[in-house]
Amino acid sequence: MLNQNHIASQFENKVRVRVCGILKENDQILLLKHDKIGPAGFLWSPPGGGVDFGITLEETLKNEFAEETNLEIEVMDYLFTNEFIAKRHHAIEIFYLVKRISGTLALGNDPELPPEKQILSEARFFSAEELDSLPENTIHNAFNAANARDKITELKGLFTFKH
Question: Who contacts 136 (Cβ-Cβ below 8 Å, separation ≥6)?
């Protein structure tokens, strides 16, 4: 659940469409740490963001990766759709497999939030063992739909999480 003290109410009480990218290199998956989100006070999640009117999913994902990670990507295969419904939040997230084209990983910012309310604090690759060691409430819920978290790229279809 989002912390109201840090996140604008723009994300509450409406359906939000997001696009997310799974970047897997050397058997590791890239995640971003979002502070002030979730019951643990932070959440590891793949790069991505909200889709604006008139901007394609692919354009949105490329822009989000550039802004959040300093990486230029190619959008590869559609993986799955994740629907998350909570008391004040409803997100429909479309996940794609992506490939790095260029760039050196560097933490950027979330373009949807003003400078004084930034929540991204870390960008790093996780091995299968590291993914599995993360408590369930500290990683994006879609990872918990896979038999093993590093197998998220094998998910297909629609997954709904209602809290």
Answer: 144
